[in-house]
Structure formats: structure tokens, C-alpha cells
Write a structure and sequence with these properties.
binds adenosine-5'-triphosphate; 237 residues; 10 helices; 10 strands; six-stranded mixed beta sheet; Rossmann fold
């Protein structure tokens, strides 16, 4: 089956510092792919390159459209939503206002209200807190809001950077269970960058291990989880 996203020979750099040295990966329609690797390996840079936020070269084919030279706003319009590390919600606006802003690139109207209702079905906690200022939410709720806001774009692909960052273990489980629900029931494809390799491999269908800007290993998540060097270096057992 043809993948939704097909990346070949992706290189990226900050000034003279080359961070990605020609990586290849695919993301299947409706599936979750995880990108694992140590600090500084180039995971965040990969997401930034896909969004056109860092100088890069190679080919990025998104359902037949070449994204390599596109501007970030075009990439968003084509159906890729980015949930950066640190979440970036508007802290002085309410939960519901944040969700409404997520639909900014789309037409106004009843569609937006309908989408907000749908997002509340995945995140009942956000509905309970719909009138609360985003800055007063717990870390887990802010992460849920960041994902909810990205979903307001009705993306085909969501790029998530460290969704577990700074969250208590129980909350992390809750966020990941919701991500699985979103994949299974909304058919949104995801690329997840995660330090918590064990959890990411539980959720993911496919996995890639990136080491100093190169893909060191790739395959079905279940296989990568059984790989001895992954277990020693990233899973700790
Ligand atoms: P982490 O989990 O620590 O975020 P990562 O795998 O996501 O790791 P990147 O953030 O992609 O790694 O960083 C890859 C390399 O690029 C690192 O050496 C980092 O210092 C460098 N780098 C990242 N952002 C910039 C920047 N804005 N300017 C210069 N160098 C950068």
C-alpha cells in the first residue's frame, strides 16, 4: 500500500551544523509511527523539517504532493498539524477559545461547533473545563488541549513532539490511550517523537530509531521492542 507520507534522503541543518544526514521513512495511512532516539539525535529536527521550519533537502511526498519547498502555512492547509514540545496553548484564553482558534485556517460556521463537540467526546476533561483559562489547567490537560487544538485542523497527519513530557505516569497513560482512540476512530495518522520508548512502542504500529541524524533501525513496533540493543539502550531491560 502506498504510504501517506514518504520521506527520502532528508537532510537538515542549523547554519553550518548538519543534523539529519539523509533519512528515509514512511508513514502509513491511519497508522502511528514513532521516532525514537537519544537526546540530540535529530527527532525534533525531523518534525520541524516536515513542517518547513528548518532548512532541509530531500523529498517529502505527502499523498502525491511534494512538501519540500512549501511554506509552513501551506503544509498545515494540506493536512499536517504539529503539536510541539511545550504545547504552546494560549494561556489567557479559555479551553474553548483555544479550540476555536485551532480552526483558524478553516471557514467559520456550525462545522466548527460540531468539531469542538467531537473533540470533547475524546477529551471529556476538556469539556468539563471548557470555560477555564488554559494557563490554569494541569500539565496533562494542557497536553490534551494541544492535541485537541491540532485536531481542529482536521489533519490527516499529526506530528507530536514528546507528548509525555513533564506528565505524571498515570496521566501519560491516559493521554496515550486517547491517542490510540483517535487513531482507531478518527483515522488520523501520527508521527510521535518520544523519550518514553516503551510507551511509544506500545502505541505505535511502526518504529524508527534515529542515531546522530541517521536511521539506525526500523520495522514494526513489536519487532523493534524485541530487539536486544533497543531493549538494552532504550527500554532498560
Ligand atoms: P531532544 O530529545 O533532546 O529534543 P532531538 O533528537 O529532538 O533531541 P534535536 O532537537 O532535533 O534532537 O537536535 C538535534 C541537534 O541539533 C542537537 O545537536 C541540537 O543541539 C541541534 N539543534 C537543535 N535546534 C537547534 C537550533 N535552533 N540551532 C542550532 N542547533 C540546534
Amino acid at each position: 500500500m502506498k504510504p501517506l507520507l514518504r520521506v527520502r534522503g532528508l537532510e537538515a541543518q542549523y547554519g553550518l551544523l548538519k543534523v539529519l544526514h539523509g533519512i528515509d521513512f514512511d508513514i502509513g495511512e491511519g497508522s502511528v509511527t514513532t521516532l525514537l532516539g537519544a537526546n540530540g539525535a535529530g527527532k525534533t529536527t525531523t518534525l520541524r523539517a516536515l513542517c518547513g521550519m528548518v532548512r532541509h533537502s530531500g523529498t517529502i511526498d505527502f499523498d502525491g504532493v511534494d512538501l519540500t519547498r512549501r511554506r509552513t502555512e501551506d503544509i498545515v492547509r494540506l493536512g499536517i498539524a504539529h503539536v510541539p514540545e511545550g504545547r504552546g496553548t494560549f494561556t489567557s484564553l479559555t479551553v474553548e477559545e483555544n479550540l476555536q482558534l485551532g480552526a483558524m485556517t478553516r471557514r467559520q460556521g456550525s462545522e466548527i461547533e460540531e468539531d469542538i463537540r467531537r473533540i470533547y467526546r475524546f477529551f471529556p476533561r476538556l469539556e468539563e473545563r471548557s470555560g477555564q483559562q488554559a494557563g490554569t489547567l494541569s500539565g496533562g490537560e494542557q497536553q490534551m488541549l494541544a492535541v485537541g487544538r491540532a485536531l481542529m485542523l482536521r489533519p490527516r497527519l499529526m506530528l507530536l513532539d514528546e507528548p509525555s513530557f513533564g506528565l505524571a505516569p498515570l496521566i501519560v497513560r491516559e493521554v496515550f490511550a486517547i491517542l490510540a482512540d483517535i487513531r482507531d476512530n478518527m483515522g488520523v495518522s501520527m508521527l510521535i517523537v518520544e523519550q518514553n520508548a516503551s510507551l511509544a512502542l506500545e502505541l505505535a504500529d511502526e518504529a524508527y530509531l534515529i542515531e546522530t541524524g541517521e536511521i539506525a533501525l526500523s520495522g514494526p513496533a513489536a519487532e523493534i521492542r524485541d530487539n536486544e540493543s533497543v531493549r538494552n539502550s532504550y527500554l532498560g531491560y
